[in-house]
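User: Design a sequence. Structure:
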């Protein structure tokens, strides 16, 4: 009877040991990956829904874009924020104008000036809530040491082409998918307007540029005074299909 080759047996033993080592290493790696996922905040995970009660994180634009096609998910997101709202009745305007899957903002951290009511598409409201919480309110405290008591705006819905140019595509305002912010009123009564403050006093210039930059972090479309002559007195924020910051 032939005796087993010691070299062959040793080789088989090393092979099995190597396989076992790889299995253990893979298990350890899987455990580390799982632990890492568990410890990573949801705002850094692309598959978790956006919530408005924690810092937004680097995936905020992607998560906001997902809300545009999922009204139920968007309402759930809004409920996690600080806006008081109700669901708006659908509106059919002239031609393609009007809105569906929109909400009425009934309460924000600071009241809105006229026009009222403030009706917006849901994802726009979510983006506004983030901008208000993460940019507007802390910027006012940082630059002026006062809270904002009123948000001055020019409305959300207007059935018209872009910049009122005949023959142009419809503005996002035609779908209540944009809001024009003209300025703010502070607790002490001071009013900071885009029109006078963009090139005005140093604190107003810095404050308004921070609002513009913060808007570009959450809204799809942003136009300010440097964008074109039609926006010298307000910031245009929208959640349309085009991504731009001017």
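Assistant: Done.
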């Amino acid at each position: 009877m032939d005796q087993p080759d010691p070299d062959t047996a040793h080789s088989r033993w090393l092979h099995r040991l190597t396989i076992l080592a790889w299995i253990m290493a893979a298990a350890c790696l899987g455990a580390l990956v799982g632990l890492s996922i568990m410890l990573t905040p949801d705002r850094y995970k692309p598959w978790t829904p956006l919530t408005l009660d924690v810092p937004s994180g680097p995936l905020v634009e992607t998560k906001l874009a997902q809300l545009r096609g999922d009204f139920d998910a968007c309402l759930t997101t809004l409920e996690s924020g600080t806006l008081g709202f109700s669901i708006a009745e659908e509106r059919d305007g002239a031609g393609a104008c009007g809105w569906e899957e929109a909400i009425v903002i009934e309460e924000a951290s600071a009241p809105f000036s006229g026009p009222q009511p403030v009706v917006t598409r849901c994802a726009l409201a979510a983006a506004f809530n983030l901008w208000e919480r993460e940019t507007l309110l802390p910027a006012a405290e940082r630059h002026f040491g006062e809270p904002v008591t009123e948000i001055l705006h020019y409305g959300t819905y207007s059935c018209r082409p872009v910049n009122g140019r005949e023959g142009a595509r419809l503005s996002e305002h035609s779908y209540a998918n944009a809001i024009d912010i003209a300025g703010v009123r502070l607790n002490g009564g001071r009013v900071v307007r885009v029109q006078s403050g963009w090139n005005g006093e140093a604190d107003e210039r810095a404050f308004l540029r921070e609002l513009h930059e913060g808007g570009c972090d959450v809204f799809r479309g942003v136009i300010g005074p440097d964008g074109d002559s039609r926006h010298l007195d307000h910031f245009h924020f929208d959640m349309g299909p085009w991504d731009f910051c001017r």
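The CA atoms of residues 113 and 227 lie 24 Å apart. Residues 6-39 form the longest helix (34 residues).
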